[in-house]
């Protein structure tokens, strides 16, 4: 689950920036180009993929998954950037055979990060059969001492604490076609919290966010693919200032968004799955993100590198590239899993993984984006249920190790 | 592998989470205790100082500080709002103390400013931590340096969530901790 961007207290300090002026560009033109490119690519890929027989058959029908499969993991774990938590991670699939999924997390930090999370998500609530559904996410988030990094390619390994408290809600209507091979969704989110104004007064702040997603899934499985390829395009959209969630506060654009509504971020992801043997397969993942729009000389966030060896949001800038290679070895099990209260379902396999990742961010889209790459490597253990993957990864970078215990494959 | 082994595998994930939960902790501050008087440079006069008030942007008085008018010159008309105190230096360099508004907890803007100076200005970040001045005012301090430039940032929350950031910038490690500069920092007080 993704939640709203964490926002730092407004800071009026030394903000001298030495970013060289960028050449003027046609922002609207660039945006039309990227949207057009995505649509063109999508339209071209579909018939080509179908004709060329490069779309592998599904190993199983996702809709036939076991009803009420669930897994509850009480654990002490650390999330990169968030510190050490004690809590519960829960995931359920195909509730009462309706096709709906459920996810929840309760976490209280036990390190100095002082973060409290209560999050829940109801996914694939049917609107029209199982073709048109919507997701709902809710989060009650209190950040007492969240450690954030300044954005930018040259961001130092030095954090600043963020104090924030807000409620987060999101709805996401989603259209799924052709065995879930084509997915289109629109997301509308609303964060309702507080911030500190120029005079130090705590003031309410409410703001919307919006985005769209297009995914083309030419793989053999929705949950744990081993063959085929997947393409995904995500973009932020101009959100409404008012919705059924509420109305933006007057200060939200000036105090929180700081003019970022003029910017749009886009992410392109391409993932390939290649089976080597019956149990061993390779996965390659490539990602590119960018922020479109004029922000002067300010360093803006087009996205964040998903490097598992660094804390969350460690590397952000206007442009970013990321690549990963992961080798997965799956021990097939196909056994029922019954642990009273904690688990019910079918374990299909235990998966061991090793991975290597590289990535870099830059304020400019040039060759610099591919120099001085950040990298990490690591190991992972995954428990693969019929419709749920529980993942534990440990990764090492030049800034030390990071661990993550979460649900779903990384890609 | 039977169900018992599967349970063990589940337990393994949780246990690994415990054993490997070794990152993501907040790094400990290195500085603590009184700021101290500084060292070297011209000795501040006793009593003959200029007093300045610190206001929020809405005009509310939240604190004040004092400085030696014979050593520091005002580069902006209202240094207590957002301005710069520039110290007269008989040598080759200039000692400057830029003052800016902050809001919220003091360690957030001081660490943020330090990170921006490191990112954009090539500074190396040194020790940091909460300290107290002669007035009993708590300040967050971050030390920075790069070849030919030295800086110490002090941030104080003076009233409610409003406060000030004082930065000492100099061209040598000695000047950045001169008695005159530290006298200003030690005079910061909440109203």
Description:
The complex is a heterodimer of chains A (411) and B (191). With 411 residues, chain A is mainly beta. Chain A has one domain (27-407): membrane protein fhac: a member of the omp85/tpsb transporter family (Porin, Beta Barrel). Chain A has helices at residues 27-51, 252-257; strands spanning 69-79, 83-95, 100-109, 115-128, 132-148, 160-177, 182-196, 202-219, 228-237, 242-243, 246-247, 264-275, 280-292, 303-304, 316-317, 319-339, 343-362, 374-385, 389-397, 400-407. A 13-stranded antiparallel β-barrel of chain A has the order 1-2-3-4-5-6-7-8-9-12-13-16-17. A two-stranded antiparallel ribbon of chain A has the order 10-11. In chain A, a hairpin with a 4-residue loop joins β6 (160-177) and β7 (182-196). The longest helix of chain A has 25 residues, at 27-51. In chain B, the strands form two sheets. Chain B has a seven-stranded antiparallel sheet with strand order 3-4-5-9-8-7-6, with helices on both faces. In chain B, strands 1-2-10 form a three-stranded antiparallel sheet. Chain B is an alpha+beta fold. In chain B, 46% of the residues are buried. Chain B has helices spanning 3-19, 79-82, 107-121, 179-187, and strands at 50-55, 61-67, 72-74, 83-87, 95-103, 124-132, 138-146, 149-159, 162-170, 189-190. Chain B has one domain: Jelly Rolls, CATH 2.60.120.1690. The radius of gyration of chain B is 22 Å and the shape is globular. In chain B, 24% of the residues lie in helices and 37% in strands. In chain B, β7 and β8 form a beta hairpin. At the A-B interface, β1, β2, β6, β16 and β17 of A face α1, β5, α3 and β9 of B.
- Overall mean pLDDT of chain A stands at 84
Order of helices and strands of chain B: HEEEHEEHEEEEHE
Helix content of chain B: 10-25%
Tally of individual helices of chain B: 4
Biggest chain contact: A-B, 71 and 56 residues
* Gyration radius over CA of chain A: 21 Å
Q: Summarize the main sheet of chain A.
A: 13 strands, antiparallel, barrel
Question: What is the total number of structural domains of chain A?
Answer: 1
Tell me the name of the CATH class of chain A.
Mainly Beta
Specify the CATH architecture of chain B: Sandwich
Number of helical segments with 4 or more residues of chain A: 2
CATH C-level category of chain B: Mainly Beta
Helix content of chain A: under 10%
Oligomer: heterodimer
Whole-number radius of gyration of chain B?
A: 22 Å
CATH topology of chain A: Porin
By helix and strand content of chain A, what is the structural category?
Answer: mainly beta
Report the CATH architecture of chain A: Beta Barrel
């Amino acid at each position: 689950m993704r939640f709203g961007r964490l926002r730092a207290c407004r800071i009026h300090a030394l903000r001298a920036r030495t970013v060289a002026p960028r050449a003027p560009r046609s922002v609207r033109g660039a945006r039309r180009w990227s949207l057009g490119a995505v649509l063109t690519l999508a339209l071209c890929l579909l018939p080509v993929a179908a004709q060329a027989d490069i779309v592998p058959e599904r190993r199983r029908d996702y809709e036939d998954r076991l009803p009420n499969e669930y897994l509850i993991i009480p654990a002490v774990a650390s999330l990169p950037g968030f510190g050490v938590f004690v809590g519960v991670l829960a995931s359920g699939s195909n509730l009462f055979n309706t096709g709906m999924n459920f996810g929840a997390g309760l976490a209280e930090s036990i390190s100095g990060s002082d973060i409290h999370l209560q999050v829940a998500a109801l996914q694939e609530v049917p609107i029209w059969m199982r073709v048109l559904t919507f997701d709902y996410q809710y989060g009650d988030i209190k950040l007492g001492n969240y450690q954030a990094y300044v954005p930018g390619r040259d961001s130092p390994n030095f954090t600043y604490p963020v104090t924030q408290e807000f409620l987060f809600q999101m709805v996401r209507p989603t259209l799924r076609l052709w065995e879930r091979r084509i997915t289109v969704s629109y997301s509308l989110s609303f964060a309702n919290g507080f911030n500190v104004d120029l005079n130090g007064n705590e003031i309410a702040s409410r703001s919307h966010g919006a985005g769209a997603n297009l995914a083309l899934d030419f793989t053999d499985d929705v949950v744990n693919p081993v063959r085929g390829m997947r393409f995904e395009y995500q973009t932020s959209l101009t959100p409404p200032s008012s919705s059924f969630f509420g109305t933006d506060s007057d200060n939200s654009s000036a105090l929180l968004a700081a003019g970022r509504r003029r910017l749009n971020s886009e992410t392109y992801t391409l993932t390939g799955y290649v089976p080597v043997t019956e149990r061993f397969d390779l996965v390659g993942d490539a990602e590119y993100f960018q922020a479109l729009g004029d922000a002067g000389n300010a360093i803006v966030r087009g996205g964040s590198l998903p490097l598992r060896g660094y804390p969350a949001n460690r590397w952000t800038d206007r442009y970013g590239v990321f690549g990963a290679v992961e080798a997965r070895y799956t021990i097939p099990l196909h056994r029922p899993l019954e642990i009273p209260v904690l688990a019910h379902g079918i374990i299909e396999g235990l998966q061991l993984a090793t991975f290597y990742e590289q990535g870099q961010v830059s304020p400019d889209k040039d060759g610099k984006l591919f120099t001085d790459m950040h990298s990490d490597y690591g190991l992972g253990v995954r428990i693969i249920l019929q419709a749920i993957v529980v993942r534990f990864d440990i990764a090492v970078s030049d800034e030390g190790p990071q661990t993550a215990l979460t649900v779903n494959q990384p890609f | 592998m039977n169900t018992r082994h599967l349970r063990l595998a589940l337990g393994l994930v949780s246990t690994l989470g415990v054993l490997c939960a070794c990152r993501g902790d907040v790094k400990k501050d290195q500085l603590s205790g009184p700021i101290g008087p500084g060292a070297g440079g011209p000795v501040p006069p006793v009593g003959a100082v200029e007093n300045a008030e610190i206001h929020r942007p809405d005009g509310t008085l939240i604190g004040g500080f004092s400085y030696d008018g014979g050593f520091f010159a005002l580069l902006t008309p209202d240094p207590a709002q957002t301005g710069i105190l520039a110290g007269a230096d008989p040598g080759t360099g200039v000692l400057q103390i830029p003052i800016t508004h902050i809001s919220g907890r003091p360690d957030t803007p001081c660490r943020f400013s330090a990170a921006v100076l490191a990112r954009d200005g090539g500074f190396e970040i040194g020790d940091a931590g909460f300290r107290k001045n002669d007035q009993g005012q708590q300040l967050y301090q971050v030390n920075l340096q790069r070849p030919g430039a030295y800086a110490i940032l002090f941030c104080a929350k003076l009233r409610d969530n409003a406060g000030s950031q004082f930065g000492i910038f100099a061209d040598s490690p000695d000047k950045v901790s001169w008695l005159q500069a530290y006298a200003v920092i030690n005079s910061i007080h909440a109203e």
